[in-house]
């Protein structure tokens, strides 16, 4: 019983204040979601067109990564509401995956080395 | 008791923002995530661990592709479909991408209507999300069947580097499994929404905890994450 009354009072004290939106969770206009949805469609179409027109080399890779990062950013920031969370949560969740980039760099050195040894090995037939 | 910890007490407005906010939030002898419930926090932490799993899959794929002396099969041709006698590159994957993005859109709106306590719209939008997800898995099953019939195996394929099959089945298979569990999760929560469990705060069957519309947002976090992973798979595996 006690928990119910406490819950109820914390709601009433918030009614009408700007912070009330947090008491009832994340509330944002539907229009925002529709706009993000539209942008995700546009960005996906763009990345598909990169393949459709057969762009190659650095242009292809940079465009793919650009559209990918923009899409990921929109999904995390708006759909997953990260833009409205406190920074303590945002950094706790978003920083660790950035460390994967270090792992990527390590594995790039590693695979370059593997490729080199394979080329040498297959050529000499040793 | 638990309710007290869950609700924002209003003190949040007096807390410092920005970098001083991070230091103050973490250093004090109290909860680090001030206005986020344990359920949402745990879902975020689970998603963080899942990020590392998919990160490792994509990393191993990168390593295999960079270190092989045999040319990598061209995904643009491998995943092309013949429509009306014309070969369209990557078209099925593009449609799957749009289906998954649409499911994310309906999910985001379901969360919104949930917090507005619109039972009917929330349940319908969640079921629409689940339907999009099931469509996605169906198209993936079609794609797998097509590739297996063409002779793709985890140890080889007719077009080039043998690691292609292993990477493909591992990455898309694991993602498809995530979508499937997401669909089941969504249907379970949609049923509860439809029944009005969160309006009457009915206690859960397993947990005996009172239900809240926040679970819709937590389910949404998982669903958007599945969409997010697909963004990276689409870029690195299909387009690269």
Descriptive notes:
The complex is a heterodimer of chains A (126) and B (240). With 126 residues, chain A is mainly alpha-helical. Chain A has 2 domains: 1-85; 87-126. Helix content of chain A is 79%, strand content 0%. In chain A, helix 3 runs antiparallel to helix 4 (57-79). Chain B has 240 residues and is mainly alpha-helical. Chain B folds into 2 domains: 1-35, no CATH class; 37-239, Up-down Bundle (Four Helix Bundle (Hemerythrin (Met), subunit A)), CATH 1.20.120.80. A two-stranded antiparallel sheet of chain B has the order 1-2. In chain B, a hairpin with a 2-residue loop joins strand 1 and strand 2. The longest helix of chain B is centred in the C-terminal third of the chain and has 33 residues, at 163-195. The relative contact order of chain B is 0.13. The interface between A and B is large, with 69 and 72 residues.
CATH topology of the largest domain in chain B: Four Helix Bundle (Hemerythrin (Met), subunit A)
Radius of gyration of chain A: 24 Å
Query: Which range best describes the helical content of chain B: under 10%, 10-25%, 25-40%, 40-55%, 55-70% or over 70%?
Result: 55-70%
Helicity of chain A, as a percent range:
over 70%
Oligomer: heterodimer
CATH architecture of the largest domain in chain B: Up-down Bundle
- Write the H/E string of chain A, N to C: HHHHHH
What is the overall number of helices of chain B? 8
Biggest interface goes to: A-B, 69 and 72 residues
Form type of chain B:
globular
């Amino acid at each position: 019983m006690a928990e119910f009354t406490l819950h109820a009072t914390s709601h009433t004290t918030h009614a009408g204040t700007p912070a009330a939106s947090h008491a009832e969770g994340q509330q944002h206009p539907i229009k925002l979601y529709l706009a993000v949805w539209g942008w995700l469609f546009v960005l996906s179409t763009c990345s598909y067109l990169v393949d459709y027109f057969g762009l190659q080399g650095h242009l292809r890779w940079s465009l793919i990564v650009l559209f990918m990062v923009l899409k990921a950013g929109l999904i995390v920031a708006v759909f997953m509401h990260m833009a409205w969370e406190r920074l303590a949560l945002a950094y706790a969740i978003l920083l660790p995956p950035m460390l994967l980039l270090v792992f990527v760099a390590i594995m790039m050195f590693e695979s370059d080395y593997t490729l080199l040894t394979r080329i040498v090995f297959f050529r000499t037939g040793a | 008791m638990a309710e007290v910890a869950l609700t924002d007490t209003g003190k949040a407005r007096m807390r410092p923002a920005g970098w001083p906010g991070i230091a103050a939030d973490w250093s004090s002898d109290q909860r680090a995530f001030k206005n986020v419930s344990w359920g949402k926090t745990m879902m975020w932490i689970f998603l963080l661990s899942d990020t590392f799993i998919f990160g490792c899959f994509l990393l191993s794929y990168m390593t295999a592709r960079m270190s092989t002396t045999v040319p990598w099969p061209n995904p643009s041709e491998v995943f092309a479909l013949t429509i009306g006698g014309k070969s369209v590159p990557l078209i099925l994957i593009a449609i799957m991408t749009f289906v998954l993005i649409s499911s994310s859109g309906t999910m985001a709106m379901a969360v919104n209507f949930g917090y507005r306590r619109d039972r009917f719209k929330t349940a319908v939008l969640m079921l629409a999300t689940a339907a999009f997800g099931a469509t996605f898995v169906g198209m993936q099953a079609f794609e797998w069947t097509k590739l297996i019939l063409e002779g793709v195996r985890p140890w080889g394929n007719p077009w080039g580097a043998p690691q292609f099959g292993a990477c493909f089945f591992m990455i898309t298979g694991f993602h498809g499994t995530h979508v499937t569990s997401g669909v089941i999760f969504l249907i379970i929560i949609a049923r509860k929404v439809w029944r009005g469990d969160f309006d009457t705060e009915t206690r859960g069957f397993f947990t005996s905890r009172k239900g809240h519309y926040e679970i819709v947002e937590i389910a949404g976090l998982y669903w958007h994450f599945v969409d997010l992973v697909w963004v990276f798979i689409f870029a690195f595996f299909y387009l690269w």
